[in-house]
Amino acid sequence: MDRHATRNHPETLSRPELEDSSEHSRDGTSARGADHGDPADLRRKRRRAFADRLLALAEHLPAHERTLIEASYRDALRVVELAALVGGCEPDEAQVRAMRRRIRVLVRRLLDPRFEFVVHALTNTEGIPRAPWSPLRARVAREFYLHGRTMRAIAAETRESFYSIRRHRDAVEALFDMHAKRGRLHA
Asked: Does 78 share its domain with 52?
């Protein structure tokens, strides 16, 4: 069992321990801000909006990666619980660190503006020109930006040269830069 798993976890504290916590002031609000039950707590709304955005973007991930994001952000499973589910037994520190790293990499990929650009380009929304994207370019964009695969792995799978895959990736980067610059000019 993780030695920090039960420390200060809200479910493990009894009601009097929660009320006597040093984080609460005399007027019933938390020392960090609004009361935890306050519906106007902007921190909770921002966290929920962040989680909802990640979950919406995660629909474009491969199934095994989407499941991790959903378990973490929708089902609120802790990293230790996720590592135990994936490993099938009580995880050690290395497995927990690996799971944290894996989720962090997934979240970074989801929050990368290129991820959203490729999603919109492949679904042809927001006026992003779809015409210049060949089937190979679309596949490279999907595999590289959405699935997080390396250019070398894409080249091996598609039986194209590494140089060709890199050129398609560079073309998508150029389109992204053009779209981002155009968006800044209109804003």
From this structure: yes
